[in-house]
């Protein structure tokens, strides 16, 4: 991410949540491991064709099952990060959302998940995303204690009490969590849309038509420029139950159109489109000494 002044770049961090197969994952997941493989390889390949990469958020059991595929992605520039749903981990002994647990209970199960993840991939993740964006006042502290230093933990404006995911009023911009060297890089959502329940429009590839995704991305980027944000970041999200290997598929087409739109928009605005990982963004912020 070097070679261009930070304020002259538009950083895009494509992300994918890599879930366990649905049979063992009450919150949802791909029907088969074969579909998961096609999803991951297709997503990495499609973006690689445009010189782009990002961060794969991987639950521990998927790390254990598909390590070779994931390490290949890392060789292509992708960051391997940890994703976690209590209900889909291990033998299913944890049956609530992460935000329902105390500090000690979060620390215990996240440490267990971290051990499985790290043994499977031979490295230690430094970035994190909770399943369903579920978190509470203890979550960042538990993550920091375990060595995580950045995350993309929420959709700004999400209001889903069932998931213990209330992010109304949360900052939509990258920022350090108060009191610790942990950089939060939220997923991209409409900053002006308020919902009584559920999610505002956000950059979930499987969540909206291509024209909606492109329109949101453009509104967000123009908002960042008008606000004179030095660090301009777009964070799309998707999951490993979408077959991105299908070049004629609807979701592959949405992804391609979003990339094309961001490329045209950045050129129009005089910005250089740059790929990013969540960890890489934290390193960039630290090098630039940005007070965020």
Write the layout of secondary structure elements.
Elements: E1 9-12, E2 14-18, H1 33-48, E3 54-58, H2 60-65, H3 67-75, E4 79-84, H4 103-121, E5 127-130, H5 139-145, E6 150-151, E7 159-160, E8 165-166, E9 175-176, E10 183-184, H6 210-226, E11 233-234, E12 237-239, H7 250-268, E13 272-275, H8 278-288
Parallel strand pairs: 1-11, 1-13, 2-3, 2-12, 3-4, 4-5, 5-6, 6-10
Antiparallel strand pairs: 7-8, 9-10
Helix pairs in contact: 1-7, 4-5, 6-7
Spans of at least 5 consecutive residues whose pLDDT stays below 50 are none
Number of discrete helical segments: 8
Query: How do the SSEs run, as a string of H and E?
Result: EEHEHHEHEHEEEEEHEEHEH
Shape verdict = globular
Beta-strand content bin: 5-15%
Find the CATH superfamily: Glycoside hydrolase/deacetylase
Spatial separation of the terminal alpha carbons? 19 Å
Q: Which strand order do you get reading across the main beta sheet?
A: 9-10-6-5-4-3-2-12
- What level of helicity do the residues show? 25-40%
Radius of gyration, in angstroms, nearest whole number:
18 Å
Helix- and strand-based class? Answer: alpha/beta
Number of domains: 1
Number of strands: 13
Walk me through what this model shows:
The chain is α/β, with parallel strands linked by helices. The chain has one domain: Alpha-Beta Barrel (TIM Barrel). It is 36% helix and 15% strand. The protein is built from 8 helices and 13 strands. Strands 9-10-6-5-4-3-2-12 form an 8-stranded mixed beta sheet, sandwiched between helices. A hairpin with a 6-residue loop joins strand 9 and strand 10. The mean pLDDT is 98.
């Amino acid at each position: 991410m070097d070679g261009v002044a930070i304020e002259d770049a538009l950083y895009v961090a494509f992300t994918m949540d890599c879930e366990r197969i649905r049979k063992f994952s009450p919150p949802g997941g791909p029907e088969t491991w074969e579909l998961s493989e096609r999803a991951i390889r297709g997503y990495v390949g499609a973006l690689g064709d445009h010189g782009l990469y990002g961060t794969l958020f991987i639950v521990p059991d998927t790390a254990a099952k598909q390590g070779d595929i994931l390490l290949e992605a890392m060789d292509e520039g992708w960051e391997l990060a940890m994703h976690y749903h209590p209900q889909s981990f291990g033998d299913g002994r944890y049956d609530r959302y992460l935000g329902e647990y105390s500090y000690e209970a979060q620390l215990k199960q996240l440490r267990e998940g971290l051990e499985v993840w790290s043994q499977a991939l031979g490295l230690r993740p430094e970035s994190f995303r909770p399943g369903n964006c579920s978190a509470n006042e203890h979550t960042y502290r538990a993550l920091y204690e375990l060595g995580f230093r950045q995350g993309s933990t929420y959709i700004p404006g999400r209001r889903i009490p069932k998931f213990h995911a209330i992010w109304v009023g949360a900052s939509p911009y990258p920022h350090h969590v108060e009191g610790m060297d942990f950089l939060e890089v939220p997923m991209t959502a409409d900053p002006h849309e308020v919902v009584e329940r559920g999610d505002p429009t956000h950059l979930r590839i499987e969540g909206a038509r291509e024209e909606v995704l492109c329109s949101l991305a453009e509104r967000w980027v123009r908002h960042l420029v008008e606000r004179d944000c030095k660090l301009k970041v777009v964070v799309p999200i998707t999951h490993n139950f979408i077959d991105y290997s299908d070049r004629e598929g609807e979701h592959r087409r949405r992804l391609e159109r979003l990339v094309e739109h961001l490329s045209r928009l950045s050129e129009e605005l005089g910005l250089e489109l740059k790929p990013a990982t969540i960890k890489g963004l934290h390193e960039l912020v630290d090098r630039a000494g940005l007070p965020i």
